């Protein structure tokens, strides 16, 4: 492939990344029928009792480490002093959001050891994609949303049983409609596309990715 062809692919990817990034940032919002505006300028600030995140390695806080293998050093060395399941030497953007909201760092949904989901859960997994194909990771966005629905249903069921242990480790049922929902995903769809598809197929796939992403958010 000549320089011209490579440049065209990079241009297509750049456009796709920009569009997906815009959509991802736009979806840092409250979902559900009771969506409310954040309290801008008020003394109390934004009040979200819980956060639920979906995505890939940009916001994975331990799922890939649990599912595949431990994230090795030097990841985590700057802030945590050791690998923390994050593909970063410190905190992720998602961690700073939690800090600003006065919430603890979220545990990965797939990590069952020493986790607490009182203030939300993180469904992001390194290598995840928006669409099921092409991908080397089975935990794509639609599956993450399915996991969330299972988590929500089970959490409400267990909480309503009145067990104090569940009450301390799971969100209150009414928090799901008041929570902050975030997502950062899409880069791997383009990455795998460049490895497996032609230049024209990569460019043609971008609108479909955005449509699939938007549909998942609506659900």
Automatic annotation (TrEMBL):
Keywords: Glycoprotein
Highest taxon of the lineage: Eukaryota
Family (UniProt): Belongs to the 'GDSL' lipolytic enzyme family.
Matches recorded under Pfam families: Lipase_GDSL
The protein's name in its UniProt record: GDSL esterase/lipase
GO molecular function: hydrolase activity, acting on ester bonds
Regions crossing the membrane: none
Gene3D superfamilies tied to this protein: SGNH hydrolase (3.40.50.1110)
Entry-linked InterPro entries: GDSL, SGNH_hydro_sf
């Amino acid at each position: 492939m000549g320089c011209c062809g490579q440049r065209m692919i990079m241009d297509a990817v750049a456009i796709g990344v920009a569009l997906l990034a815009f959509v991802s940032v736009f979806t840092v919002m409250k979902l559900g029928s009771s969506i409310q505006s954040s309290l801008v300028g008020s003394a109390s600030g934004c009040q979200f009792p819980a956060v639920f995140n979906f995505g890939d390695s940009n916001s994975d806080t331990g799922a890939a480490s649990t599912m595949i293998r431990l994230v090795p050093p030097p990841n985590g060395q700057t802030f945590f002093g050791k690998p923390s399941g994050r593909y970063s030497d410190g905190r992720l953007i998602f961690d700073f959001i939690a800090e600003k909201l006065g919430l603890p760092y979220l545990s990965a949904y797939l990590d069952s050891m020493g986790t607490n989901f009182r203030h939300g859960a993180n469904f992001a997994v390194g290598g995840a994609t928006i669409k099921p194909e092409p991908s080397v990771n089975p935990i794509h966005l639609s599956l993450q949303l399915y996991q969330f629905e299972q988590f929500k249903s089970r959490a409400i069921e267990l909480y309503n049983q009145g067990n104090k242990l569940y009450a301390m480790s799971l969100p209150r049922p009414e928090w799901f409609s008041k929570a902050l929902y975030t997502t950062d995903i899409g880069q791997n769809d383009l990455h795998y596309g460049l490895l497996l598809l032609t230049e024209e197929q990569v460019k043609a796939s971008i609108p479909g990715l955005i449509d699939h992403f938007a549909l998942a958010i609506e659900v």
